[in-house]
Design goal:
- By secondary structure, the protein is an alpha/beta fold.
- Helix content is 25%, strand content 31%.
- The protein folds into two domains: 1-34 and 131-192 and 294-343, FAD/NAD(P)-binding domain (3-Layer(bba) Sandwich); 44-108 and 193-292, Polyamine Oxidase, Chain A, domain 2 (Alpha-Beta Complex), CATH 3.90.660.
- It is built from eight helices and 20 strands.
- A seven-stranded mixed β-sheet has the order 7-6-15-16-17-14-18.
- α1 packs parallel to α8 and α4 (165-171) crosses α5 (183-190).
- The radius of gyration is 21 Å and the shape is globular.
- 45% of the residues are buried.
């Protein structure tokens, strides 16, 4: 692989947002990602049932919001184009068997085909290589050279990293940043901390009672339950998506999916009542789910080195780590790459 002006490592939403703007400005961009698809933690699991029906469960990001003008334009444009929809305008709270809380009017967006549709939309027309795991970086003769586990290599004069902070720190270990404008930001990245999250999805034979789209739960095991069919087109199988609390996830981090799944389903029955027959279920661990200690600023760019990084672990605004933060960080990085004199 060669011939790109810019390499982007990580096709999560921040990397896709940056790559799309850079490509639109006439740069030749190549994205690499170790996963089979795009979107990072804005992920959708497809489950095929015995009768051939398919269920789609958002097992990463639950939805996204649009507090900024550009994100609002993207979200509402998606509604008009049919790939996006307003899912709900409020999520009630469960505590000790009581559900309370009214709609607040603020739209939560969830694409009908799953959260990964957001990433697929941003990826349209981009040069993307998936299933590629970066093992090392080197800078030689003014070029960044990327080595991968699969034996591929890529070169470009500029390099963008869109990775969870611990993975970014690891991939930079062989790069000498001493005396550069990136040394301090690399140290900041090393200080970023995450809370993990165990999640479970369950496709049910029948829907559970209740009219709520999701619940924020005050429970020792679960903090979130979502009725996934409320996001989907008519006819979608009933399904629940469950997110464990950060504390429970951390305490059970190294257990297997098969071990934690029954406990997460039991916790769901304590909140939603006895579950109907489960037709299919899975559990998944996100080791780097929610940044709890973030890096300052919207992104990092070192024009002299041609090196930068972005992600939801930066602080592009005051609203916390979320889908919109990743997008804002990626867009900000693209601006800095294209207009370094404006720094």
């Amino acid at each position: 692989m060669s011939g790109a002006d810019i390499l982007v490592i990580g096709a999560g939403l921040g990397g896709l947002a940056a790559a799309r703007d850079l490509s639109a400005a006439g740069q030749t961009v190549t994205l690499l990602d170790k996963a089979r698809g795009v979107s990072g933690r804005a992920a959708t699991r497809r489950v095929t049932l015995s009768d051939g029906r398919e269920a789609r469960l958002d097992h990463g990001a639950r939805y996204f919001t649009a507090r900024h003008g550009r994100t609002h334009t993207l979200a509402e444009g998606g509604v008009r184009d049919g790939w996006n929809a307003v899912w709900t305008r409020g999520v009630p709270h469960w505590h000790a068997g009581t559900v309370s809380g009214a709609a607040d009017g603020h739209p939560r967006y969830a694409p009908p085909q799953g959260m990964s549709a957001l990433g697929r939309t941003l990826a349209r027309g981009l040069n993307l290589e998936t299933g590629v795991t970066v093992t090392s970086l080197e800078r030689r003769a003014g070029l960044w050279r990327v080595h991968t586990r699969e034996g591929l290599a890529a070169e470009a004069s500029r390099l963008v990293l869109n990775l969870p902070a611990p993975q970014l720190v690891t991939v930079l270990e062989g790069v000498d940043l001493r005396g550069s404008g990136s040394e301090g930001p690399a140290l900041e990245a090393a200080r970023v901390e995450y809370a993990p999250c165990w999640v479970a999805g369950a496709v049910l034979q029948t829907d559970i009672p209740g009219t709520w789209p999701a619940l924020r739960a005050d429970h020792p095991v679960l903090e979130w339950l979502a009725r996934e069919l409320t996001k989907r087109p008519p006819g979608h199988p009933p399904a629940l998506m469950l997110h464990a609390t950060p504390a429970w996830s951390a305490a059970n981090l190294e257990r297997s999916p098969e071990d934690v799944l029954p406990e997460l389903l039991t916790a769901a029955s304590q909140i939603a009542g006895p579950l109907p027959e489960v037709e299919a279920a899975f559990a998944h661990r996100w080791r780097y789910a929610i940044p709890t200690r973030r890096a300052p600023g919207a992104c990092h760019w070192d024009a002299a080195l041609g090196l930068g990084w972005c992600g939801d672990w930066f602080t592009p605004d005051d609203h916390g780590p979320r889908v919109e933060a990743a997008l804002l960080s990626g867009w900000s990085l693209a601006r800095r790459v294209l207009h370094p004199q404006a720094e």
